[in-house]
Amino acid sequence: MAVERTLSIIKPDAVQKNAIGAILGRFEQAGLRVAATKMMHLSRDEAGGFYAVHKARPFYGELCDFMSSGPVVVTVLEGEGAIAKNRDLMGATNPKDAAAGTIRADFADSIDANAVHGSDSAETAAWEIGYFFGQREIFSR
Ligand code: RTP
Ligand code: MG
């Protein structure tokens, strides 16, 4: 399987729960490497730009409010099959549907406050990484 990069966001609810280390640890334990990471408090416009693909959805306004409600941790994860591996570790969007042992099953409260974001394809991963990081801020090992 090819080495890939994917974008992870630890959302405001999980940062507030003091779960940054626990979540990054799950990625590392699964064989993914942190290639870049930083803490940010997104403006509402920055959150809206990031989730622009969902602009027409009924939940877009709430999603933008939530993602700009407190600091987040944005991380580039790298490893074999990183995009699908991260989605597997995250679990289903709604924590009620998330498999036991996934990040959302263990840390998410609701479909809105669902602990983590992860890129859903190679194309979106490249765009999402570029939204937050320059090439000189990303380190492969
Ligand atoms: P994410 O983009 O945050 O990793 O989540 P995802 O791929 O699992 O889900 P997506 O469909 O991309 O939706 C983005 C975020 O919008 C909220 N959402 N609410 N009320 C609803 O039906 C609904 N659907 C989605 C979730 O917080 C989801 O993470
Ligand atoms: Mg998504």
UniProtKB/TrEMBL annotation:
Query: Quick one: which residues bind ATP?
Result: 11, 59, 87, 93, 104, 114
Task: Please verify whether the record's keywords include Kinase.
Answer: yes
CDD domains in the record: NDPk_I
The catalytic activity of this protein is classed by the Enzyme Commission as 2.7.4.6
Q: Which domain of life is it from?
A: Bacteria
Q: Which family does it belong to?
A: Belongs to the NDK family.
UniProt function note = Major role in the synthesis of nucleoside triphosphates other than ATP. The ATP gamma phosphate is transferred to the NDP beta phosphate via a ping-pong mechanism, using a phosphorylated active-site intermediate.
Q: Which NCBIfam families does this UniProt record tie to the protein?
A: PRK00668.1 (NF001908)
Q: What is this protein called?
A: Nucleoside diphosphate kinase
Give the classification, highest ranks: Bacteria, Pseudomonadati, Pseudomonadota, Acidithiobacillia, Acidithiobacillales
